[in-house]
Amino acid sequence: MTSLPDFLRIDPTTRHISLDGRNPAFYSDPNHVYAALHKHCPTFYWEEQQQWFFTGYDHVNALLRDRRFGRQILHMANREELDLPEPQAHLANFDLAERHSLLEIEPPEHTRLRTLINRAFVSRHIEKLRPEIAALAERLIDGFEKDGKTELLSSFADIIPVTMIARMIGIPDEMGPQLLKWSHAYVGMYMFKRSREDEYAADRAAKEFADYVKTLIAERRRTPAEDLLSHMIHTEHKGQHLTDDELVSTTIVLLNAGHEATVHQIGNSVRVILESGLPPAELFRDEAATERTVEETLRICAPVHIFQRWALEDVEVDGVSLQRGNKVSLILAAANLDPKVFSDPLTFKPERREAQNLSFGAGIHFCIGAPLARLELNTVLPILFRRLPDLRLRAKPTVKDVYHFHGLERLDLVW
User: Fold this and answer.
1) pTM for the complete prediction?
2) Going by CATH, does the domain composed of 8-414 fall within 1.10.630.10?
3) φ, ψ dihedrals at 90, nearest 5°
4) How is the chain split into domains, by residue range?
5) What is the structure's pLDDT at 123?
6) Going by C-beta distance under 8 Å and a sequence separation of 6 or more, which residues neighbour residue 375?
7) What local confidence, expressed as pLDDT, does residue 2 receive?
8) If DSSP codes are grouped into helix, strand and coil, which group holds residue 265?
9) Distance from the first to the final alpha carbon of the chain
10) In angstroms, rounded to a whole number, what is the distance separating the alpha carbons of residues 36 and 8?
């Protein structure tokens, strides 16, 4: 890349950049911006976000594992010391739901919660779900195959992940549409476009979501079932059971993380494959080829782009001096495009044998649902392209204004 897009300003001397994260030219095609950043300024201070960002593969990979950084800071210092604002009253329900979230806490609480649920998500247990995932995918395709067209997100991608994670937890299939509504409102808190209305919507969703989970907890206390919620309620770790608030937070984060990103990734993957011009029959010719194809789609079009960390002590990284209480951002999707690690990084090349993508993170906060997401992708994508061998894009897909997530508004297909 010889010139920068007009919406990106980089000062390599100060390592400051200016970039409007709401600009469609950016969030519709962030990979080309990441390529420019790798070339000119892989570690930078993003002026609009008032934060240091890291995009280099080695830095991102190391920082995800570095115990000098964490998802939590208030266990080590108070708000006054860190000059942090007080919690906002209109987000009280959201903050309560987040208080015990696996994504937001550190050991020893994180270790206790993760230990209680980890067994359900290890690969050998998840693999047993393959026939169920495949049957669901086949049934959904049966419903639209004869039409010769579909909007794939609503007819396929939205349904599979939420159905599977809900079944694992012990939530009826018919709750799927409501869970999607709550989840979409809830994760609005993490988007660059977040407005006051988004905050109110997220808080309402958090309260309704929590109230529903509490009714389920009461039912499972009375009548345990063979599901993850019953397991979390009735299993103890070192003599301790999860509290109701911990159960609510954990269930919400599992439901959100268990489907939101996978919905985006199914759509992103189908788009990338169709735009590549590579023959799907070859990409999914066997299990090994399928796995390589899925991992390459995760590398080049990750559904979640940014993880944040607090500096838990004064520390220097790549020449940047950080003080305890500073927050930094790691752009996983940009690390996946580091030209020092991946050859021709903007090109979809399923045959590549290079580093592991960082789309699921790393370290103690590595995505607990990664085995489930990978199984869903490795199961449903081959079925889709086998059942619809003439699949093609009906129109150029539009990317949603949901950065730092990356997903499509619609995916209209014909065959």
Assistant:
1) 0.94
2) yes
3) -75, 0
4) 8-414
5) 76
6) 123, 126, 127, 129, 130, 133
7) 47
8) helix
9) 36
10) 9
Rounded CA separation 81/79 (Å)? 5
Residue 64 CB partners (closer than 8 Å, separation 6+) = 307, 309, 330, 358, 361, 362, 363, 365, 366
Cβ count within 10 A of residue 359: 24
pLDDT value for 278 = 97
Alpha helices (H) along 323-369: 332-335
Task: Return the structure tokens found at 307.
Answer: 């993880």
Alpha-carbon distance 297 to 311, whole Å?
Answer: 31
**Averaged in consecutive runs of 10 residues, what is the pLDDT profile of the chain (415 residues)?**
82 96 95 97 97 98 97 85 88 93 88 85 87 98 98 97 94 94 92 92 96 96 93 83 91 88 96 97 97 98 96 96 96 98 98 96 93 96 98 96 95 98
Question: Tokens for 209?
Answer: 């979501």
Distance CA 46, CA 56 (A): 15
Cβ count within 10 A of residue 171: 23
For residue 393, give both structure tokens. Answer: 């894009």
Task: Give the residue among 209, 212, 262, 238 at the shortest CA–CA distance from 101.
Answer: 209
DSSP 3-state of 181: helix
Pairing of strands 69-70, 306-311: antiparallel
Contacts (Cβ under 8 Å, ≥6 apart) of 344: none
- Cis check for the bond before 30: say yes or no (omega within 30 of 0): no
Measuring CA to CA, how many Å separate 116 from each of 126, 216, 224, 373? Answer: 16, 18, 16, 20
Enter the tokens of residue 282: 């070859």
Report the DSSP pairing between strands 320-322 and 392-393.
unpaired
Q: Which residue has the tokens 């790798």?
A: 38
pLDDT score at 103: 85
